[in-house]
Amino acid sequence: MIYLYLLLYTLLLIGGALHLGIGPDEAKILFDQSGALHLLVQFMYHLYPHDELVVRLPNIIVTVMDVYLFYRLAQHLLRHKKDALFAAVLFSLLPAVIAAGVIINKAPFVIFFTLVFLFVFLRSEEYALVYALVLFFLDKAFAILFLALFLYYYVRKRHTFAFAYALLFTLSILVFGFDVGGKPKNYFLDTFAIFAVIFSPLLFFYFFYVIYRILVKERKDILFFVSATPFLFALILSFRQRIDLADFAPFAVFGVILMVRTFLHSLRVRLPKYRKTLQLAFAIVIASLIASDLGLIAHKQLVHCIAPKRHFAKNYYIGKILARKLQDLGMRCIKAPSNTLQYQLRFYGIKKCENVHLGFTGAIPIEVRVDGVLFARYYVTKSDKK
User: Fold this and answer.
1) Which of 98, 65, 87 minimizes the C-alpha distance to 293?
2) pLDDT by residue (tens digit) across 97-135?
3) How many CB atoms lie within 10 A of CB 163?
4) Average pLDDT, rounded, for the chain
């Protein structure tokens, strides 16, 4: 059953990648960043230039692998095989997981390496510590994992492991940095809202309830610390500053297993005639999750319902359509008004030059429309500058 689901899920991600232009953050990873993800995406781009699916293929493959490994991990931590399948499907349907599988970003890779870490941890804590040394050099996001592990061992008074992970956390902060400065600004509600989008609103409130419930009265296993620590740490930091949730969200989604375990336990301890309220609540939460997913998948159909300025996929449409319009006008180079748009145009083969300018005033108008809805209007101006 899991393999059939993975096949269908792969087709879903491929369809999403095919119908979405390259976004500004994706183009920036390709042309203006460094690191392993940049090198991987750049290799795929040179292999087959100007193709969105090809450069997104690593994200799709790793996301599908994440779902399968999540299923295997859930088999270790839940009582029944069907419970593990339910957890894996729920995990795969999180809006953030679907989006991360389609858009170039580091989240699927962070989840993958964390899943591998948890498998190693379940077999040998000593080997897990050795593997953590590898994670230290992979990405700064794993600093949050080290913090979670420090708390896990500290609560259990296993001071040797606690000290080791505290040291890894501290070194990660010192070597890779972690911005906690700046003028105090409260982004708590913004962070809370983003987490709600990551899980879908109703499912997020259940996640919040499960974290609180385990925190105050239940046994706290490794999965609780891995999912709760980044969530609570992100909320605490958001009282002072805006944070990069790409360093926190990949760990919080492991809370899906906690949610499934809590819900199924609450359901099974009740007699069948007393389960209806829980089953109704479950149906409402899943319906809201599917509605969020449909909104994400059918983004193009929503252009008539959402104002262009507020449409979440706006910046993914503009680069591709604008590049096509410029190519139709016979233009192969132009200077864009921003670096991010310049990178998007570069992805589609439009180079940068100084004698043709793209701006918001000028001689030749270019309209960017999606299904007839105007998303942006630019003007092309030519000059004699070489």
Assistant:
1) 98
2) 999 999 999 999 999 999 999 999 999 999 999 999 999
3) 13
4) 92
- Judged on CB neighbours under 10 Å (0-12, 13-18, 19+), 4 is exposed
In angstroms, what is the C-alpha Rg of the chain? Answer: 23
pLDDT in tens, 149-174: 999 999 999 999 999 999 999 999 99
Encoded amino acid at 45, one letter: Y
Torsion of CA 69, 75, 78, 80, to 10 degrees: 140
User: What six digits make up the tokens of 274?
Assistant: 């007393």
pLDDT value for 183: 53
pTM over 0.85: yes
- Mention every residue, 6+ apart, whose C-beta is less than 8 A from residue 270: 278
CA angle 78, 84, 88 (to 5 degrees): 135
Give the model confidence (pLDDT) of 4-39 as tens digits.
999 999 999 999 999 899 999 999 999 998 889 999
For residue 324, with 0-12 CB atoms within 10 Å meaning exposed, 13-18 middle and 19 or more buried, which class applies? middle
Q: State the pLDDT at residue 111.
A: 97
- The gap from C-alpha 192 to its chain's centroid, in whole angstroms, comes to 16
Amino acid at 385: K
Query: Tokens 């609180």 belong to which residue?
Result: 212
**Residue 364: phi, psi to the nearest 5?**
-110, 110
Res 184 pLDDT > 70? no
Q: Is the dihedral of CA 83, 87, 88, 92 positive or negative?
A: positive
- C-alpha distances (whole Å) from 343 to each of 27, 33, 59, 224, 356 are 5, 12, 20, 40, 16
Q: How far is CA 101 from CA 98, 330, 344, 359, in A?
A: 5, 34, 20, 33
HSE-CB for 346 with a 13 A CA cutoff: 22
